[in-house]
Amino acid sequence: MYVDKSTGRPRPWNDHALDSVGKALHKMQGLTQAAAAGGFAVNDSGGAAMLAAVRDLRAELDGQLAALATLRQSPRLGTTPGALVAGEHVRRSATGDPRSLDAVIEQVGTALDEFESALRKAMANYRETDSGNRAVLHGTHQG
User: Fold this and answer.
1) Which of 47, 49, 64, 55 is nearest to 102 (CA)?
2) Best exposed site among 48, 50, 71, 94 by fewest CB in 10 Å?
3) Residue 8 region, left (φ>0) first, then alpha (ψ -120 to 50), else beta?
4) Quick one: which of 115, 136, 127, 131 has its CA closest to 43?
5) Torsion of CA 83, 88, 93, 94, to 10 degrees
């Protein structure tokens, strides 16, 4: 827990990180929607660079999910009721809760899948626009 400077109220330690992830996901969704509507286009080399970054990030996320396998089990803190409760709290912080690390990583992974599709659509948008412009310039446009 930490104290939020703007409200003076305590917040869970990961709220700031979750807020940042939420903002990034929102921006990726905006790009996804723009590409689907034809409002976002990118050339093949720019798209390829972004797709490579998506692949790198996905590989990093996959590695983090694998590392969380250990945390999916409650740590062995003892057999007292307090130790069992504390162990379960530690496990839920990493996994099994909508605000847990693995849930956030899964959300980012889903957003990356959507963003990758959007990038491919944006690349197709660019090629279509480029092809149409080329046809107009060469007088072969059928319109």
Assistant:
1) 64
2) 48
3) left
4) 127
5) 110
**Domain ranges (residues) in the chain:** 2-125
Residues 6+ apart with CB under 8 A from 12: 1, 99
Single pTM value for the model:
0.68
Q: Over the Cα atoms of the chain, what is R_g?
A: 22
**Do the beta carbons of residue 64 and residue 105 sit within 8 Å?**
yes
**E-state strands within the chain:** 2-3, 10-11
The two three-digit tokens of residue 141, written as one number:
């446009």
Measure CA 99 to chain center.
14
What tokens does 60 get?
Answer: 């990093």
* pLDDT band per the 50, 70, 90 thresholds, residue 123: very high
Q: Name which of 112, 121, 103 is nearest 52 in CA terms.
A: 112
User: What gap in Å lies between CA 97 and CA 103, rounded to an integer?
Assistant: 7
Question: What gap in Å lies between CA 10 and CA 104, rounded to an integer?
Answer: 21
CB count within 10 Å of CB 53 equals: 12
Give the pLDDT mean for 47-57.
94
